[in-house]
Amino acid sequence: MEKAKRTEISTLGEFGLIDKLTQHIQLKNTSSVKGVGDDAAIIQPATTQVITTDILVEGIHFDLVYTPLKHLGYKSVIVNLSDVYAMNATPKQILVSIAISNRFSVEAIEEIYEGIQLACTKYNVDLIGGDTTASPKGLVINVVAIGEQEKSKIVTRNTAKEGDLLCVTGDLGGAYMGLTVLQREKQVFLNAPDASIELAGNDYIVGRQLKPEARKDIIEFFAEENIIPTSMIDISDGLSSEILHLCKQSNVGCQLNEDGVPIANETYDKALEFGIDPINCALSGGEDYELLFTILPSDKNKVNAHPDISIIGEMLDENLGVKLFTKGGNYHDIISLGWNSLKDEA
Amino acid sequence: MEKAKRTEISTLGEFGLIDKLTQHIQLKNTSSVKGVGDDAAIIQPATTQVITTDILVEGIHFDLVYTPLKHLGYKSVIVNLSDVYAMNATPKQILVSIAISNRFSVEAIEEIYEGIQLACTKYNVDLIGGDTTASPKGLVINVVAIGEQEKSKIVTRNTAKEGDLLCVTGDLGGAYMGLTVLQREKQVFLNAPDASIELAGNDYIVGRQLKPEARKDIIEFFAEENIIPTSMIDISDGLSSEILHLCKQSNVGCQLNEDGVPIANETYDKALEFGIDPINCALSGGEDYELLFTILPSDKNKVNAHPDISIIGEMLDENLGVKLFTKGGNYHDIISLGWNSLKDEA
């Protein structure tokens, strides 16, 4: 993968590798008291914390044929920060565990860490600890993210009420179409290694898949506008799946309006090219890392003024079910076809 | 592996599996505000926190030929709690990420979780979150442990001083000899599957390897006796490696007295049977999860009164180096031959 220098991990050993990877870390958040280098890190949180973890496994969550290692490191942090923002909290610390086989060089691991550090810098988060170990085969990255927020402002999934408006940030389905393009080009490459890989014109959707961002800006907008969503979740498994989580945990129904669902032009066109109904990309394609949330009707004007938030539906009495109101004027039950790594595998 | 019922993971999917595994969890610690079931767990810590994580990889850290899944779950928690105790803190919460291939049944994962829950109950820790996903091959478990302690009582590795006494809990080298016996019996089994596996008479050392405990009792003893160690680390990589960490980070030297190093009779006899010098089991064998710490000389009598703490040496001026004083009256430099998964692999 790397053409230049190749240093074997074995020449450094675990402690040497950790020293090399963590030598430039500077803690920025006041709650980060002590980072890497002891049995545990030390945190002095100013207020209530939220904590989340996600494990990314080679061959399940990423394919190194088309995933640059730096992007992988970056994304492994982002998916966790997105969970922290989905609680209306501000991420402060991360811990990163990596299991790697000796097919990777020290330089390759440094690339992963470059991506991790880039995300830390951009999102003002401290890397305070982790674990690095061998793997017989493949690469596994586990990230833990810790955030802070006053207890009264933490937003969970189970507090939506009938009459609340359903909102989503950004646009949906792009990461899924990006993955679809990458998988097609991988097949082209595998069938004819000399063929040219055609990613031109797909920058937006490929970027959504390989280098997603988390919605730090939206949490800051909520704080500025004194909005506390009545419930929130991030979109990692697809809009359908996340709406069903909100409804089930809040004991409410929902009407989702198809014509409100934001889909980028590039996503829309690429879906049609692949013979996929664009709304299905948004409903079932995962990994957009946008925020799905409900607000009080009294916050409607504030939210409407934000250029990157769409109001896409309304929460209903539980007995009315969870429905998609189509552009054609029909109602369909929303069912979860979301990305599910455990079912996919079977 | 399991002879009885076998439910395929695919019949439940990720959310069904998580529901099944977490349905009986009850949070016990006041700082655990909300556990599994949202984008993140919520914690309201009473004081300063410590946080640590360890990743365990099949084929590197454990061998399922001789490791019962319940023990594996238990041990994966213990190794993290041990790191929390090594900070003189009390563990309160854990998060568990598991990546599993579909060669495992739901019942197999339930066995792992039984071990995890058993450790939680015994050590009064809450399982508040995690992640469960597919793996193309093999089993990976990542555990995060969070503990609490007043900031002034947290003990790190870098605060030992010349004249402090070096102490260790329990006895050393047992887990390594247990592993040696298990690996021998595995070879016997592989060479002749009908041969009988001979673990009788090795209960203590095999138990040290498969089902270690963390030294909760010692942290409680420190609190009762108003002892704050001047530095502390847990023994996961072997006594040599841990002493070198304390000395390097504290900028001190050390004299370790061989005749003070506690080795159980069963460990001692088994080492001789395998032609290994017992002191080397203690120095270089890992995974004992005992605590290595330094105390002020004024705390000597209190520590001496504890039946399971041995005073094994003294911290010296840095220029005197890190030495083993042998039973034969000689001085040897202590070098690290500790277990190191990244070097082993090479």
In short:
The structure is a homodimer of 346-residue chains. Chain A contains 11 helices and 13 strands. Chain A has helices at residues 13-22, 69-85, 106-123, 174-191, 203-210, 216-224, 239-250, 265-273, 278-284, 300-304, 341-345, and strands at 32-34, 41-43, 49-57, 90-100, 126-134, 140-148, 165-169, 231-234, 253-257, 291-295, 309-316, 322-325, 331-333.
Please outline the helices and strands.
Two copies of one chain form a homodimer.
Chain A: H1 13-22, E1 32-34, E2 41-43, E3 49-57, H2 69-85, E4 90-100, H3 106-123, E5 126-134, E6 140-148, E7 165-169, H4 174-191, H5 203-210, H6 216-224, E8 231-234, H7 239-250, E9 253-257, H8 265-273, H9 278-284, E10 291-295, H10 300-304, E11 309-316, E12 322-325, E13 331-333, H11 341-345
Parallel strand pairs in A: 4-5, 9-12
Antiparallel strand pairs in A: 1-2, 3-6, 4-6, 7-10, 7-11, 8-10, 9-11, 12-13
Helix pairs in contact in A: 2-3, 4-5
What does this structure look like?
2 copies of one chain form a homodimer. Chain A has 346 residues and is α+β, with helices and mostly antiparallel strands. The first copy, chain A, folds into 2 domains: 9-152, 60s Ribosomal Protein L30, Chain: A, CATH 3.30.1330; 165-345, Phosphoribosyl-aminoimidazole Synthetase, Chain A, domain 2. The first copy, chain A, has helices at residues 13-22, 69-85, 106-123, 174-191, 203-210, 216-224, 239-250, 265-273, 278-284, 300-304, 341-345; strands at residues 32-34, 41-43, 49-57, 90-100, 126-134, 140-148, 165-169, 231-234, 253-257, 291-295, 309-316, 322-325, 331-333. Chain A has a 7-stranded mixed sheet with strand order 8-10-7-11-9-12-13, sandwiched between helices. The longest helix of chain A is centred in the first third of the chain and has 18 residues, at 106-123. The two termini of chain A are 30 Å apart. At the A-B interface, helix 1, strand 2, strand 3, strand 4 and strand 5 of A face helix 1, strand 2, strand 3, helix 2 and strand 4 of B. Strand 3 of chain A pairs antiparallel with strand 2 of chain B, so a sheet runs across the interface.
